[in-house]
């Protein structure tokens, strides 16, 4: 995908380095220094106001809305309002309202991924267009991104471990200046954070020797699910293009029939009825296309990203197993050499020259055995530690995968049911339109 055609390469991520690397001015400062701030409602029709659902019993609820475009001397980007309502005791207030930009969401997920490597961290929407080339500040694109960012925050809120993280709490509650300070003070990821990328690559290329059947089946399931969702996306995108072409054809019917009626007045009523039915079908198709993007295409694509997040968690789990296997192999080699030395006669060992004195074979053997014994003790501790980490990672992933699978079944069922309902409504409207036109055509 070329940068000149990318829908947002010149927009919110116009200076991509300012999102991936720390900019000279932090995001909250640039919000205040914006020369202009444009509310999305000014670009098109006003956005519907979202409110918290009184019947929602969750102890942490989040609403994302009110996108604004900020234009500064350095960059142009979009920020989003985040309203939080909670009854959790660790929160000082029950309601909060903050404004964050996409790079803040990236920072949060990066932190959560490295702090909880064996948990399934929900995905963020991609930096670039999900489905097609569109204008960099196209209303539809911004709304799709806002929808997925809100889904990300609420998925984290529903997670029993991730939702308790201090960085997530700060993201939802801290005012601009305090959040900027918090980000700078919590930007270090520690040793594991620095090594995670190489461990991730190693785990991808390395086939673990003892991966249990449980996690092998998990891997196969994720790969098959990703493949099926990708196929559904491709088919849906192709059908969407055909529907757009159909709408264009339907919109040409009424003008053509009007010209026909001018030359044959006796057919005017029937031709008008056909044209009206075609227009009704066209309007129904346009509604379906719009709802298909927001209610089907975007959620379905998000689930493919969610499947990728589950695959990443499994890969991180494999890195813990690699660490355990490496330490176990080293311990076995040391113990084997120690056992071999203890069995062999000291006369068979070579004489080693030391700076201060000649050592006898017995001394060489004893010295080597002591070295191996000391190394064996250290490795035994490392094996025990890595085994504990592996068992913890196994349990974390096992519990998370079960949760993820339950949510996936519910969400995909909802997506497909909504798809069926939208098509049924379209066909009912079309049948009604043509049924109303038929008597006039016969007459």
Report how far apart the termini are: 56 Å
State the helix count. Answer: 10
CATH architecture name of the largest domain: Up-down Bundle
Q: How would you classify the helix and strand content by structural class?
A: alpha+beta
Question: What is the name of the CATH topology of the largest domain?
Answer: Substrate Binding Domain Of Dnak, Chain:A, Domain 2
Proportion of beta-strand residues: 5-15%
Strand order of the largest sheet: 1-2-3-4
What is the number of domains? 2
Number of strands: 4
Instruction: Give the overall silhouette.
Output: elongated
Oligomeric grouping of the chains: single chain
- What's the level 1 CATH class of the largest domain? Mainly Alpha
Largest sheet: 4 strands, antiparallel
Average residue pLDDT: 81
- Written as H for each helix and E for each strand, in order along the chain, the element string is HHEEEEHHHHHHHH
Rg calc: 31 Å
